[in-house]
Each structure stands twice: as structure tokens, then as C-alpha cells.
């Protein structure tokens, strides 16, 4: 089962994922690993920058560990928003 099928989401009206320095993505980070280490494809390389779809985030923490340049500012969504995991 795909990860996105296991969660219900309460949308956050604030940004909780951001790129600290877009120039690092553009000029230093050759492989763009965020575009494949994230299990729900929050990060996408488009128009020479990382696009973030934070509504896809399942709060697994991969963003904190996976970026080789520690260039992702990731926080939990504000209280009362984010994912609720379903146990089936
Ligand atoms: S892995 Fe980090 S530095 Fe590389 S493109 Fe993604 S956010 Fe930018």
C-alpha cells in the first residue's frame, strides 16, 4: 500500500518545510537526493529550483537526515494540523 493511502491529513495554513539556500540546490547539489529519498515526493526539481508540496508530507523525518547539505528547514506542522495515521 502506498504511504499516502495510510494517512488522513489536516491541511496546515502555514509553511513548515522550506529550502534554506536555493543556490546550494542549484549549484552544489548534483544528484538532488531529496527528489527520491522522500517517500511521498514532497520535493520536485522544476525550473531550476526545488518545488515543495508540503501537503504530501507524512512527517517521517527523512528531510532532516537526507539532504547532504542540511539545506532543508523542516518542522512539524503547527498544532492540530498534519497527518493522522490510520491503523487498519
Ligand atoms: S538534497 Fe538538499 S541541497 Fe540537494 S536539492 Fe534537495 S534540498 Fe537542495
From TrEMBL:
Annotated InterPro entries: 4Fe4S_Fe-S-bd, ETF-QO/FixX_C, Fd_FixX
SUPFAM superfamilies associated with the record: 4Fe-4S ferredoxins
Start and end residues of each 4Fe-4S ferredoxin-type domain: 48-77
Keyword Chaperone appears in the UniProt entry: no
Pfam families: Fer4_ETF_QO
Keyword Iron listed: yes
Key words, A-Z: Electron transport, Iron, Iron-sulfur, Metal-binding, Nitrogen fixation, Transport
Listed Gene3D superfamilies: 3.30.70.20
Family named by the database record: To ferredoxins from P.putida and C.tartarivorum, ferredoxin I from A.vinelandii, ferredoxin II from D.desulfuricans.
Entry function: Could be a 3Fe-4S cluster-containing protein.
PANTHER family recorded: FERREDOXIN-LIKE (PTHR43082), FERREDOXIN-LIKE PROTEIN YDIT (PTHR43082:SF3)
The protein's name: Ferredoxin-like protein
Species this protein is from: Aneurinibacillus thermoaerophilus
Amino acid at each position: 500500500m502506498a504511504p499516502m493511502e495510510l494517512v488522513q491529513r489536516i491541511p496546515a495554513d502555514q509553511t513548515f518545510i522550506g529550502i534554506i539556500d536555493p543556490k546550494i540546490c542549484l549549484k552544489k547539489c548534483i544528484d538532488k537526493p531529496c527528489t527520491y529519498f522522500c517517500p511521498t515526493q514532497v520535493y520536485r526539481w522544476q525550473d531550476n529550483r526545488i518545488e515543495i508540496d508540503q501537503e504530501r508530507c507524512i512527517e517521517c523525518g527523512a528531510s532532516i537526515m537526507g539532504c547532504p547539505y542540511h539545506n532543508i528547514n523542516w518542522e512539524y506542522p503547527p498544532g492540530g494540523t498534519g497527518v493522522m495515521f490510520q491503523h487498519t
